[in-house]
Fold each of these.
Amino acid sequence: MKIIGLTGGIGSGKSFVAGVAEKNFPILHISTDEIARRQMQKGGVSFKGVVEEFSGYTDNLLCEDGEINRPELSRIVMNDPELLKKLNAITHPAVINELYAIIAIEKDRGKYSAVLIETALLYEAGIDKMCDEVWYVYAPIVTRSFRLIEIRGYSPEKAEMFLKNQQSDEEFLRRADRTIPNGEDVTEEDMIHIISAYLNS
């Protein structure tokens, strides 16, 4: 069973690529964002550590239902690299442990030919070390900005801030094994052909 890391900048369309792969091939799609989100919920392995570390920075870290206020947490760490490192130090190891557990189970089951790990922080979290291949989803910066503003509803200023804080395309391209073009003119049928070619080569 091949382990593939799927990464790319915000707005590049990683989820679209993963969805096409999951729907058309015997591939298990795992989103590290979904794992991290679940692990930060009450009772999750990251909840206590995040609350203890960040409750001193705001009075609004917890919502009325006791869950972590994710937009507020994002606001706290967004412009402070040291605080972001602290958050990642809590969440990344727990995510990686769950990834290894899922992969071990699926290897024994033998249901899938590949596992596709969708993650924005592939290299930062060290997830690339568990992958046989890394696929980089590429979209022009103008397309990514459009998607953030028109589809996600970001303000132009917020979109620019997120894009500015991303790893450069050159760095992604240098480190990835495969590049998946995902500009605005790429159709689902195009994506099926691209994924099929990569899986079979």
Note: Residues 49 and 56 are 13 Å apart (CA to CA).
Amino acid sequence: MTNNWTREETIIAFNVYCKIPFKTSSKTNPTVIKYAKILGRSSSALNMKIGNFGRLDPELKKQGIVGLAHGSKIEEDVWHEFNGNWEKLAYESELLISKLSHTPLDSYLDLETEDFREGTDKETIVRRRLNQSFFRASVLSAYYFKCCITGLSIPDLLVASHIIPWAKNTENRLNPRNGLCLNSIHDVAFDRGFITITPEFKVKTSNSLKDFKNEAVTYDFFFRFENQRISLPDKFLPSKEFLDYHYTKIFKK
């Protein structure tokens, strides 16, 4: 194998960049090691490629996290092709990973019998599940697997919550900037408009819950976070435009 990275390898590296917290990327990171083996590259080489993508991320630059100083044009090409075309990235990159690892796509999606009850063809179902998995991994890793309101870090209780609902904006369904890492209770409350995150990244609680404010549990879950600023991710900062949509269209003022 030559030292030059192919377009396909670089797409996989971008997939990994999206799915791990940037500050945890290293040659000893288990996820980096896993995908480096699939690529037939050293973990150091893949980690360097992830760092090269970091230099292209404007959100990291704003925080003074610049990644590696030098990179190649192929990273820029892949960044511009897929950054904003998340569904293409999710599916194409996972297809490449499946091919290189000799692992069928559906074998690691835990598809259940009920997934096929709608009469939908298998490829559509696999694509949908891949998309959901990519979105969840990208959003949760951006927040270091902690709820952005409470800091809860139990993985099974965390949700990659859409800011603009899945059905309302097909173009941004998989955009990590359309996601928040929330615990399951706040996810439901956010989805139904009982809470919102303002474009200033502060928590607001709906007046529709005011009759329950004196209940200790309601206060602990919701009102004590009023006007608190959420924990923000290093990358994929939630879009202020999307947050404004939720505040104006979904939040029960």
Note: The chain has ten helices and four strands.
